[in-house]
Amino acid sequence: MAGALVSGSALLGPAPPAAAAGTCGIREGIVLRDAIGNVFNKALYCENEPSDVYGKADFGAVITGWLKLSPSWFTCYTFGPKDTKGNSVWYYVQGDQVGDLPKVKGWGTVPGEVVRVPAHPPPGLPNCPWV
Questions:
Q1: Mind listing the pLDDT tens digit for each residue in 55-80?
Q2: pLDDT, mean of residues 6-10
Q3: Which of 5, 19, 100, 108 would disulfide-bridge 45, Cβ 3.0–4.6 Å?
Q4: How many domains does the chain have?
Q5: How large is the average pLDDT for residues 88-109?
Q6: 31 lies in which domain range?
Q7: What is the C-alpha end-to-end distance of the chain, expressed in Å?
């Protein structure tokens, strides 16, 4: 299976077959790079709701982008304030549209309620390395 490269807002290369089928799950053998130099070789590819993307796991943080399309790649998780479903897990993702702080190219966090997964965090997804 060929890997995929995500840089900026483009996905280069074919999506894994399971991802193309719309299945939510952990994908390995990919390369995702954010705007500040983090590289991820594993990510959650999953359906999601539209959402603001926040510069940090906090509803009061600057909006760095917006998730408008689904599915999306979620590279890691962290913890923050509870969302409306009582969930304190937040996911690191690149928004489909860039907001404030254009240098970060839409990267930031979304609350767990945005990601359509049975349990937060899903088994196998790494914790964000800067937490």
A1: 999 999 999 999 999 999 999 999 99
A2: 43
A3: 19
A4: 1
A5: 97
A6: 5-114
A7: 31
> Nearest 5°: phi and psi at 7?
-145, 130
- Note whether residue 126 is domain-resident: no
User: How far, rounded to the nearest angstrom, does the alpha carbon of residue 16 sit from its chain's CA centroid?
Assistant: 17
CA atoms within 13 A on the CB side of 32: 20
Read off the pLDDT of residues 11-63 as tens digits, 9 standing for 90 and up: 433 444 444 445 799 999 999 999 999 999 999 999 999 999 999 999 999 99
| 75 assigned to some structural domain | yes
